[in-house]
Amino acid sequence: MNRGSRNSLLYFNYIRQLIKDKRLLKVTSQG
Asked: Which controlled-vocabulary keywords does the entry list (predicted)?
């Protein structure tokens, strides 16, 4: 159970990082 929650947390952080990168890419492409 703990392992599963930790995995989901890592996955969430990974997705958040991807979204942040995409956002930066979009901003740079616009600028």
From this structure: Mitochondrion
The pair of three-digit structure tokens given for residue 7, joined into one six-digit string: 């995995």
- The pLDDT value given to residue 31: 57
| Cα separation, 8 vs 12, whole angstroms | 6
Q: pLDDT per position in the chain (31 positions), as tens?
A: 567 788 899 999 999 999 998 888 787 777 5
What is the distance between the alpha carbons of residues 15 and 28, in angstroms, rounded to a whole number?
Answer: 20
Q: How far apart are CA 26 and CA 17, in angstroms?
A: 14
